[in-house]
Design goal:
By secondary structure, the protein is α/β, with parallel strands linked by helices. It is built from 8 helices and 5 strands.
């Protein structure tokens, strides 16, 4: 099948509280778009670059090491600065579909609403890290906090999952607040019982948006 060309790159992010299944959903979307002959990239935060994968280990798997709230914020933003330069911007410049598992909204929801760092401070640092790059579309997978955490912790809790349920409740409410503020960009999908039903809804929304980026034949 001939490659489908877009007029410009499109930046799609996946967000959601713990256990929302966003990694599964974003990978399924990536496979679906590849089958439809779109040129796409799938990446994730924290991680996504060689330096980023090191940062991810510090952030999620550094048992017994104290990391202050501000250090945590800077590490997420350092990771972002690297992935923007190394992966996202080049992908968009090549008119690709760039799918990223989490981005700036995660920092507002987790470190901002969850960790209660002032949102203005986060926005300032984030703007420097992203050079003001924003997603064109964000899929927010919403799941009840207790259900999601239970699902996420099945394989053992990482440093972020181990935070209190009150923290994770604030994260979820923070995400929903962001979605209310930017309804055109952030689309909320309630996680369904079956992965394929959630994916159907993801594809419906994404394919509709992508159709606006197609180059006329
Ligand atoms: P995940 O691979 O399950 O999404 O794990 C990433 C964890 O990092 C998750 O608990 C959310 C958290 N996180 C933040 O707290 N702030 C951020 O900016 C990002 C990107 C992730």
């Amino acid at each position: 099948m001939a490659k489908k060309n877009l007029r410009k790159g499109i930046f799609i992010t996946f967000e959601g509280p713990e256990g929302s299944g966003k990694s599964t959903q974003s990978k399924l979307l990536y496979e679906c778009l590849k089958k439809r002959a779109y040129t796409c990239i799938h990446t994730r935060e924290p991680g996504g670059t060689e330096a980023g994968e090191h940062i991810r280990r510090i952030l999620l798997h550094s048992d017994g090491i104290h990391i202050s709230d501000l250090t945590e914020l800077f590490l997420f933003e350092a990771n972002r600065s690297q992935i923007v330069e190394e992966v996202i911007k080049p992908g968009l410049a090549g008119n690709k579909v760039v799918i990223c598992d989490r981005f700036s909204d995660a920092t507002v929801a987790y470190q901002g609403y969850g960790g209660q760092i002032p949102l203005e401070k986060i926005r300032l640092i984030d703007k420097a890290a992203t050079k003001s790059l924003k997603p064109d579309l964000t899929i927010l997978l919403d799941v009840d906090t207790a259900t999601g955490l239970k699902r996420a912790k099945k394989k053992g809790a990482d440093r972020m999952e181990a935070k209190t349920i009150a923290y994770h409740r604030r994260v979820r409410q923070g995400y929903l607040k962001l979605a209310r503020k930017e309804p055109h960009r952030i689309k909320v999908i309630k996680v369904r019982e079956h992965v394929k039903d959630t994916q159907k809804e993801v594809q419906r929304i994404v394919l509709n948006v992508i159709s606006r980026y197609k180059r006329p034949r």
